[in-house]
Amino acid sequence: MNNIVILPIIIPMITGLFLILFRRNIKLQFLLSLISLSLTGISAAYLAYQVKESGIQTVQVGGWSAPFGISMVADMFSMILVITTSVVAIAGILYASKSIEESRKRYFFYPFYLFLIVGVNGSFITGDIFNLFVCFEVMLIASYILISHGGTKIQLRETVKYVLVNIVSSALFLVGIAYLYAITGTLNMAHISMRIAEVGQDGLLTTVSIVFLVVFSMKAALFLFFWLPGSYSAPPTAVAAIFAALLTKVGIYAIFRMFTLVFYHEPHITHLIIGILGAITMIFGAIGAIAYWDLKKIIGYNVIIGVGFIIVGLASFTAVGLTGSIYYLVHDIIIKALLFLIIGTVITLTGTSNLKDISGLIRLHPSLGWMYFITALSLAGIPPLSGFLGKIFITEGSFEANLTWLGAIGLISSLMVLYSVIKIFLYGFLGETTISEEMEKGSTKGIMLPIAVLTFLTISLGLGGELLAPYVNIAVDSLLNPIQYIDAVIGGRN
Amino acid sequence: METIMAIVIGLLFTAGTYLILSKSIIRIILGTSVISHGVHLLILTMGGLKKGGPPLLGSDTTSFTDALPQALVLTAIVINFAVTALFLVIGFRTYKVLGTDDTDKLRGIEDE
């Protein structure tokens, strides 16, 4: 029993509720959100330290022991993600404070932003599958509101699509939970894993696992990504960045959790399907990324390629592959937020998202241009930057698992990523300057700080990957040995 | 009883899917609502329908009914209410701002 486990959920939740009282005082709202997100990150970091020292931490809510009550579990995998989430959320809120209009902020922007983080952290921490559904819904309702917040025409249209897709997939999620409950008679993920290990994963359970795969694929934009490029281009930059960084990652986290903890008995069926889905996702994402000249479309399809690539590590189901996946997850959360923030800034400056109308921005904004160049290289996995570590481990893992074709598709897709983002650099930043400072539609005043912070993080994550290694190894170890997780939750060690 | 429930659930899913595939936003919203009802019944049925007495201390029966699915359905219904209400508001707002509730006519709006 360790009550700190619940802090990353409780802190932003209470702050969010509290902020509703200060509707008019926007400055205070911003400060309080910043403080609460920092505290969330600090508590998660402390938990990660505890997990490293003394194993997986759990809390049984209300003191009801494991299979009966609701368990919250902090293992290294989820803690790494919670810490990264807090960092990106802080960067996002710094950007939002300067770029979101006052009228939007007055209509509860900050509370909903915090509720989104509550849902994301809750999904990472919970150890109960029905609670996972509830946390997903907390996150999704906040995201429905953030995506339609402001109510422009394009936002409303995309919200209708986004809400519909998510309601249908949530309904399927419940269907999966119902079948799983009928078969195993429990909802605690550790307990489900035990029961399945006892009776064996027969065809029926494999089918249920595919239902879950479909649901989480829809949320993670794995293969079922048709809704993503539209929905992520509608909301304001700060919101789109936080969506791109976090929402798909929660789906990926759920896939990882389910297919390493619960449905790991038939990898030649389930993990092969995951691999095939990843391959198709990367191919279609790459086609989309190089086909468009619209900045928002290009970066939207880049999110999809990232999802496909992370999943390859799970499909390989080797220690190396999973190590790569965790490195790449952290990298991808940071780099997607950074990419969306920079492209959003470019769109604010020029007033258009058509790459053909933008040229020579680097003359007016050299620091933005060079930070974009670093982002582009990091995204494609050029060595000293953060994308490289994940990319090499995932590729190695896929070769080790005799999935050479999958690794090859991953590498080819990285080339496509490089082409698509360098295209933006060549045409948008280099070349003849077509606009002067007076013609710009906005300014970079005050919004460079979060971009600089994230750029620094992507460089230091690449150079300091060694420091992260012990933590990642613990995470991989517990993913590959679900018995650790089960022991911590059920074993009554607390 | 389970068989009848299975057929009812199937019918609800069919009707919901049919409604979601239509063009009008309000029919789509109703479709999602109908599908959710099917899902809630599915959870109840999958937990096992009434098999014995209530699971209370001191009751005389030897076989008990599983109470957990009811708790799950309660949560799911609350969430579904919230989401449906929000979806209705967004649908109404979309109709007011874009001037149509036909999903075909939503494409190609000017601020794109």
TrEMBL record, chain A:
It holds the Pfam family Proton_antipo_M. GO terms for molecular function: antiporter activity; NADH dehydrogenase (ubiquinone) activity. Its main location: membrane. Keywords: Antiport, Cell membrane, Membrane, Transmembrane, Transmembrane helix, Transport. The keyword Lipid biosynthesis does not apply. GO terms for biological process: ATP synthesis coupled electron transport. It comes from the Bacteria. It is a multi-pass membrane protein. InterPro entries: CPA3_Na-H_Antiporter_D, NADH_UbQ_OxRdtase, ND/Mrp_TM. Residues 128-416 form the NADH:quinone oxidoreductase/Mrp antiporter transmembrane domain. One of its GO terms (cellular component) is plasma membrane. The chain crosses the membrane at residues 6-23, 30-49, 69-95, 107-124, 130-147, 159-183, 203-226, 238-256, 268-292, 299-320, 326-349, 370-393, 405-426, 447-472. It is found in: Cell membrane; Membrane. PANTHER family: NA(+)_H(+) ANTIPORTER SUBUNIT D1 (PTHR42703:SF1), NADH DEHYDROGENASE (PTHR42703). Belongs to the CPA3 antiporters (TC 2.A.63) subunit D family. This is Na+/H+ antiporter subunit D. It comes from Sutcliffiella cohnii. The lineage of its organism: Bacteria, Bacillati, Bacillota, Bacilli, Bacillales.
Automatic annotation (TrEMBL), chain B:
It is a multi-pass membrane protein. The chain crosses the membrane at residues 6-21, 28-47, 67-90. It comes from the Bacteria. Keywords: Cell membrane, Membrane, Transmembrane, Transmembrane helix. Its main location: membrane. It is found in: Cell membrane. This is Na(+)/H(+) antiporter subunit C. It comes from Sutcliffiella cohnii.
